[in-house]
Design goal:
Oligomer: single chain
CATH topology of one domain: Methylamine Dehydrogenase, Chain H
CATH architecture of one domain: 7 Propeller
Helix content: under 10%
Shape: globular
CATH superfamily of one domain: Regulator of chromosome condensation 1/beta-lactamase-inhibitor protein II
Number of helices: 1
Amino acid sequence: MVELDASSAPDAMSESGTPAKDAASTVDASVVPDSATTDARMTAPPDSAIVAPQPLVTALELGPISACLIRTEQTLCWGAVLGSLPARTTSTPTPVAGLGKTSAVSVGSRHACAIDTQTRCWGSSIQAMYPSGVGSRTEAAVNVGEPARTVAAGLNHTCVLETSGIARCWGEIATGLADTLQLDSGSTHVCAVNLSNRVFCWGDNGVGQVTGTPGGSVRNAWQLSFRNVLSVSAGESRTCARLASHEVTCWGGPDPFQPILGLQDTVEISVGDAISCARSTAGAVDCWDGTYGLTAVRVIVAGATHVSAGTERACASMEDGNVLCWNAGAAPVLLEN
């Protein structure tokens, strides 16, 4: 969810307590400035004879004001430098101090976390960064816990999938879940797939992003009716599940449990706010929601290795190691390395 008001602190919040966005001064720190085109289709991946290849990206994650990727086990981030004081931004992927060889990274609203030999976080959301709730803002990653399989950062919470298979969360959302296979966090809700390939969600359910029916907050893990779920992705106020049948079904908002049309052989999904995307086995990327509607639109024909959707933008890593980013409804452009 890479959206940054360059005139304010990277941790700027709206009066409602959520990350400020959609202001006229907002610029996208995740992409090179876009051309005037509004064609959302890309006819081919970048020409490797023109674009210099880069080391392969093994993880890619967009947050509301910052984004990160992992190359050769090194975490590089751009956009707002989370935890910096005075506030700084960078338009190119820059190493995060305090991290060793990383295997996973997740970007929240005001903090981010990665896993090397330990779970380490940086930023300014004290409640979300530290399980004890006690600590200080930092732009260098600090140790906050034991090793884990993966990590998921939200607005004011963080969850880890421990090596034991237990999903454990702290901050405003503190519910856990045993026998977890995969975990993802939205801004204010969390979802997981268990070893039986069932989906459980908990947290803010204001527009039905947890249960499918709007209403309040769900404290304990809520089991949805889906079976044979391979993965789940939680966004700002929407959730999607990837099923063994190759279908992708989403809930939250005015269209609960709506199957997304136009997808084939999906191997990865990423739900943002006004944009959500999927990657196929052939490396094609299709997006929906916002300006796209509920029928997926082809954005990248082939060659993508990872995809991540943010507030109104998405990025994909390519087979040559480069990263393409695009606004909803616009053509992809190359991320500056």
